[in-house]
Structures are given as C-alpha cells and as structure tokens.
Write a structure and sequence with these properties.
alpha+beta; Rossmann fold; Dna Ligase, domain 1; D-amino Acid Aminotransferase, Chain A, domain 1; 3 domains; four-stranded parallel beta sheet; 16 strands; 28% helix
C-alpha cells in the first residue's frame, strides 16, 4: 500500500493526547480512526470509530485491531516490539519497526546517532557497580545514570555529582543489570528540537529548530524560532533529516539536540519516533501541523507546508495548571487545547496553549 483514500482506516497504537491530535487531523482529511490502548477511556477515544481496550501483549486483540486497519501508526515509543510483529502481517506500520527499535533502547540509540554523524554525549553501558565505577572514571562527574528502556519525563534516571553518589545510584537503578547506561555531561547552551515529516517517496519537510525549556524534566515551554545562529539551525536540520533517512521513517519523528556553548554546534540528545510535544506549536503556527503531515505521510499523500506563520510560543499545562483554562480562554490571542483527561495529577500533561505572535 502506497496511498490511502478517504474512508479508509488508520489504526493508532496508543490513545493519549498525541493519538487524539493525530485522530483530529485524520478525521479532517476524511479517514476513519481506530485506537488500541489498555485504558478504557483515553483522550483519543472521543474521535475514534472503535476502540480496542486491551494490553499490548494481547495477541488476539491486536489481530482483531489490525484486521480493521489499512495502515497502523503509534503515538509513543514504549510499545513492545512484539505488538508490532503481531500486527505487521495485516497492514503497513509507519513510521516503522526500526524507528521504534532504535528509540526504545538508549544504548542502541546513541550507537545509531554516532553512526549517522549526529553525535551525542559520551556514554558507557553499565551492568554492575564495578562497571559503573569504571564508567565514572572514564567520563568524569557530573554524570547521569539511566535505564536503557522505559524512561521519559525524567523517569528512570538519577544524577551523580560526587563519588559518594555511585553506590546510591546503583542502589536506585541497579535492579536492572545489563539495562543501564551512564551519560557524561556536556556544556550546552540550550536544548532545541527539529521535527521531520518524511513521506513514502522519501521527500521530507522540517519544523524548527524550536527552543525547549523544561521544568522538573517535563517540557514546559517551546519557542519558535529558536535563538540560535543560522549555521546552528542548518546543522540541526541536516542532522535530523539524516536520522530520518537512515531510519527510513515514514511519518513524523523528532530529534532533540544540545546546542553547545561557544559556537560548538549541536549534538543529538535523543530520538522520538513519533509526533512530539515540542511540535504542538505547529497546529496554529504552520499551514500543516506535525499531526496533519504525519497523517499525510503515512497515507501516502503529499506533505503540507511547514513554514512558521510568525513567532510562536507554546506552554504545556501540567497538573493543576489546567485550572487556568477559563483565564487562558479570556485571552483572545491564546489557542487553548484541553486533552479531556478527567483528573489532574502532578506531572500529568493536561493540555497546552499556543500564541502566534506578529512581533518577535
């Protein structure tokens, strides 16, 4: 299958806010949407014609879901590869299994980034406390010990600032032997990301780079354009395109970068093989958002324009920040998105708000 027609069905593995925004774009373009997730009433369900409520290890449910889909995509990277293997005989999976395989394992990811010339922070694989001590000696301090899998928004990681932290870090994460990685610190100025939309035909368009600010390891604010030099922006875009091409991605992926101090260029931080939080600004800030271009790409349609319509600022609404919903709506220039989650919890992304400016 190279191209879908309106009325055909897009299956989404996962049904959170990213799945919801993908479904909004899919419906806009005339496609039907079905979702698969272990939650009964996740955000995307409001827009899906059918929801398969089952675990990602439920092969029978995955088979039934895939049988109804003409193309399958995913909204987050912590889906078991076995789930993709179960649905693969029924419909194309886009962006693709390789994208998920690389992004799910921090060690594989960093090996890959170096192979394609994107660069990354220095790192060592760690499988024992002795190896952790040897890695600290090689990389120096400060450093951060991370699980190789299932880490996001600061989860599955602990910082090491002194030698005394080595034993504490191993006690915190050493219950996953063979599944840890130590990353050395880099002297960076800011974090930026580039979102790439790549079609079936290999043609690609990019968004960004956008400047990202975090609070408690969670993205708080994105600013477009990022305050970086033209050379730095071009380097980030080129490296992001190289990553997408090397992965043979079809759809949207995001590459996060560290901008090094003193004109040192950029090195990659991580790959998100999906639509990304730092691309939410594109909904109002570009002619075709990251979500629309993801749907266009995976269905074989031409990609839309990605040029920013002006300076853009996006804020995540995290936890009880969603309580400012009505106040934000009183701002006529604010584009407010509520994800429909029933309960605000600490660190939970409840929505976002975007402003498209006329003046930088």
């Amino acid at each position: 299958m190279t191209k879908l027609s309106p009325g055909q069905t897009i299956g989404i593995l996962g049904a959170g806010q990213l799945g919801r925004m993908l479904a909004q774009s899919a419906v806009q373009l005339g496609f039907d949407v079905i979702t698969f997730a272990p939650e009964k009433r996740p955000p995307a369900v409001q827009l899906a014609s059918a929801h398969f409520n089952a675990a990602f290890t439920d092969a029978a449910a995955l088979e039934a879901f895939a049988a109804d889909a003409d193309v399958i995509t995913y909204e987050f990277e912590n889906i078991p590869l076995s789930a993709l293997d179960t649905v693969a005989p029924h419909a194309p999976i886009r962006p693709g299994r390789r994208c998920l395989e690389v992004a799910q394992d921090r060690l594989f990811e960093k090996d890959f980034l170096n192979t394609v010339g994107a660069g990354c922070a220095p790192y060592r694989s760690v499988s024992s406390q002795q190896e952790l001590e040897e890695a600290v000696e090689a990389l120096g301090l400060p450093a951060v010990l991370k699980t190789r899998r299932f880490g996001y928004d600061g989860k599955g990681q602990t910082f090491l600032r002194t030698q005394a932290d080595i034993a504490l870090a191993w006690d915190a994460l050493g219950n996953a032997p063979g599944e840890l990685i130590l990353e050395g610190f880099v002297d960076f100025e800011r974090e930026v990301s580039v979102v790439v939309a790549r079609g079936v035909n290999g043609k690609a368009r990019t968004y960004g780079p956008v400047w990202n600010e975090h609070s408690n390891h969670i993205l708080h604010r994105s600013i477009m354009p990022a305050p970086v030099s033209d050379d730095c922006a071009d380097e980030a875009i080129t490296k992001a395109l190289n990553v997408a091409e090397a992965l043979e991605a079809v759809g949207v992926i995001c590459v996060e970068f560290f901008v090094l101090k003193d004109g040192g260029g950029v090195i990659a931080n991580e790959i998100a093989p999906r639509v990304h939080n730092s691309g939410h600004w594109t909904i109002e800030g570009t002619p075709a958002s990251q979500f629309e271009n993801h749907i266009r790409a995976i269905t074989g349609l031409p990609l839309g324009l990605t040029d920013a319509l002006g300076p853009v600022e996006m804020h995540n609404l995290i936890g009880n920040e969603i309580d400012d919903y009505e106040t934000l709506l009183a701002d006529p220039s604010a584009h407010v998105h509520h994800y429909g989650k029933p309960e605000a919890r600490v660190g939970r992304k409840m929505g976002h708000v975007t402003w498209v400016r006329s003046d930088p």
